[in-house]
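Input.
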Amino acid sequence: MEEFFEGTEPEHFKAFADGTRQRIASLLYERAATAKQLADALGQKPGSVAHHLKVLEGVGFVRVVRTRQVRAITEKYYGMTYRRITLSGRNFSWREELPGISPGFHFQQAVREYEALPAEERADASSVPVSVLRHARIPASVAREFGRRVAELAEEYDFEPVPGERVYGFVAGVYLTDQPELPEVEEEE
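Output.
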């Protein structure tokens, strides 16, 4: 497995635009698996998972890492090509080239994953849900620097999978808001 890939092209984003492909990648980071094994883990049909694997393979994110002959069938085991994939949309416009995908995509995905949990698991204090929202009226340069620090923190969250343990997510971002500004106050004499 190679160490790092920075995706900058629309097809890289489209490959991860689908939640199923994200879940497949997450499983393949843990270990190689067949389309059938992935389908069983995801509760989906093998043909559907095979389609998603083809998309990921087409952009070079996954590859066949080994095969095994089972009677007359050759099982293909897929693995991730890179240990870490970062997507950076500097080379294109989100809205024009990737309708349906926005910079808020990660937040939406996090909400979908959390809401998919049974209510009793969400209410369980041991599930460690932590959420913070802050607003700051600051120069863009300060926001960029803070965003860089958040990205560094996310790098620290990259742990080797521990078999049998639950998967926790980390989502963070610095984004421009539509928060209004109060008008200037005229000083009274």
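Confidence is low (pLDDT under 50) at residues 92-99.
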